[in-house]
């Protein structure tokens, strides 16, 4: 069985005043075990979402999402693992996680080690919490892709802002 891992560490820092940044949230994943459900929630399902993904996104299943300490260190990591296995009528499993914390503005610092391979598409992105604009949640309310790596092109990292006026469905996203 082939599996792939995405290792990430996340901080959110928000500016207060002109001179200082104040850390308001972080997760260093510095333990062995499950994901901290006080900080994270899982999107669950296998309907292909918006990109026709072939995996089933599981809920807090350690085979797909877990925290581990680096061997011989107190430093931790989140491992999101895609696995080739049959699960709820899908051929693969993985995890899709959302932070429970919400921000209007700020600076994100993310450290990530990405897998490579055809068919993989590791991504870190931000979506709005509510539908405030237009008749369609996406793309009318926007999306910010902080990082996407398309598996067949491992040397290129994409960062994109999707809006109602500029998105891949219209073929004009920057």
Automatic annotation (TrEMBL):
Thylakoid among keywords: no
Pfam families in alphabetical order: GH16_XgeA (PF26113)
Record Gene3D superfamilies: 2.60.120.200
Location of the GH16 domain: 29-174
GO molecular function terms noted in the UniProt entry: hydrolase activity, hydrolyzing O-glycosyl compounds
CDD domains hit by this protein: GH16_laminarinase_like
PROSITE patterns: GH16_2 (PS51762)
Signal peptide region: 1-19
GO biological process: carbohydrate metabolic process
Entry superkingdom: Eukaryota
The entry's keywords: Signal
Family designation: Belongs to the glycosyl hydrolase 16 family.
Name of the molecule in the record: GH16 domain-containing protein
Lineage: Eukaryota, Metazoa, Spiralia, Gnathifera, Rotifera
